[in-house]
Amino acid sequence: MAVQNFDMPLANVDTEVLIVGGGPVGLTARALLERWGVRVLLVEKHRRLSPFPRSRLVNVRSMEIFRQLGLATRITAAAFAPEYGRIRFRDTLYDRDFATAAMVGINAPVPESPVLGVVTSQDRLEPTLLAAADAPVRFGVELIDLTEKTDSVVALLVDRDNGDETRVRARYVLAADGANSTVRQLRGIDTMGPGALGGVTTVVFDADLNRWCARQPAGVYFTAHGSFLPLYPEGGWAWFAPTPEDPARADWPGLVSRALGPSAEVRAEVLRVQHWVMNAFVAERLHHGRILLAGDAAHAIPIIGGLGMNAGVADAHNLCWKLAGVLHGWAGPSLLETYETERHPVADRTLRQAVANTQLLLQVQNRRRDQLQGTEAAPDRIELPWSEEYFAQLGLVLGVAYDSDAVLNDDGTPPEPPDSGTDYVPTAEPGHRMPHLWLRPNSSTLDTFGERFTLLTPDPARWERQAIAAAPWPLGVEALPREHIDFCDLRPHGALLVRPDGHIAARWRDHPPSDAALPHALTAITGSTSA
């Protein structure tokens, strides 16, 4: 897809949503909003998509979202095979594993989802996301100021090539401009958490490492001398380690070669070097008037466990249908307040889990160092201090449950706060992600969501009249096979109302209590005055 750069001055352009930031989160939001018929403009201060691999893991929940966008097959085709969904610990890259663990949901199918997550580099993912929509994108355009009006936001932009300043008026601004978010700073939104954890350098290089890795593939090899990551199925590597004191004078080929180990006898051909800061924080607020934060602008998550980018994709999935509802008139502005209510606790839990992941990783490395420094020969293997659930993240990404005004309990009240544990137990309780259940061959419950509310019921005929009365909300009725009703805690005439983001908004265990039950529920959930 050709990137659309406007020829007319941007001062003459109004848009419904201005997205600031062209990484995976901003690009996902652009594709989701376009599916909803929302006019979008995306601006990115860099002149092109990032050439660096950066995020490496697209987890199973993100792949469910990309499946809804019709992108899962294309993303998988450019990614590593499932056997790369594993981490390996070695003293040096050419040594044997002293510990290894599978990434659940990546290395093999799981019954809780119809898709499989993948190991892929961000510079492979972003072009696919860019091509997923036609909404205009301006690269090399930086946001430098925002002015909030009663009914809009006016953004001052500067073209980094010629210095021209222009203004764009938007109904809403979605800030996906990274951990150093200009939008967050302009609005004076503070952050909570440890902050900067230290400088890290990523070195992209070429070398023939097949003799140590081809028979034991992995998405990442953790060693005492930094971490090594295969970049693409056809070749290429990255090494990341703490940034040295004088990076400008560093001998990067020598550093990488020494990290490989003296017995490796490999000279790395360095292609690119990137210095960055590992941050750990959550923004105090995700919602400021008509400005909303998502992705790293909202929460900077340490990389261990691959949770950060995926949490940002889930932010966009939660937010975009709400923006569409408000802009199209079938939801009230109060619905946008549920974005922060729902996603801020998830950001907090995700940060805690990533910090715990880092501590577990250090525990493994410290234990191995103590073994090697002991008087006796170090054992070939050590037991990992976590289960095969890869830091228990499957529960965190599939088990998220929301507690807000956009969810009604079975008796019509908001649900109890969700459990904050990381184990995942599928449930059809309101607030939770609708479990994956097969409706028919190759068609999951998750395939019925995306651009509308969905009523899942074993008795569609009984609920059709309710659905007809539910205008103007976008709504469809899907038959739920009767073999699933016990699991969903339904009786033969009951129903689940599922939001466009796949989370259960309401449940009626039996027949509708009144002819207006469904419209009344949608009114409450969306904060609408339409019913």
The general outline is globular
Structural class call reads alpha+beta
Percent helix, as a range, is 25-40%
Reported for the largest beta sheet, the result is: 8 strands, mixed
Oligomeric state: single chain
β-strand number:
24
Low-confidence stretches: 1-9
Structural commentary:
Helix content is 26%, strand content 26%. The protein is built from 12 helices and 24 strands. The chain has helices at 24-35, 60-68, 72-77, 122-130, 182-186, 210-213, 252-260, 308-328, 334-373, 393-398, 460-468, 517-526, and strands at 14-20, 40-44, 57-58, 86-90, 97-102, 118-119, 137-139, 141-148, 153-159, 165-175, 191-206, 220-223, 226-232, 235-242, 269-283, 287-288, 291-293, 299-300, 438-440, 443-444, 453-457, 475-479, 495-498, 504-508. Strands 1, 2, 7, 8, 9, 10, 16 and 17 form an 8-stranded mixed sheet that branches. It has an 8-stranded mixed sheet with strand order 5-4-12-13-14-11-15-18, covered by helices on one side. Strands 22-21-23-24 form a 4-stranded mixed sheet, covered by helices on one side. The radius of gyration is 24 Å and the shape is globular. The protein starts with 13 loop residues before the first strand and ends in a 5-residue tail after the last helix.
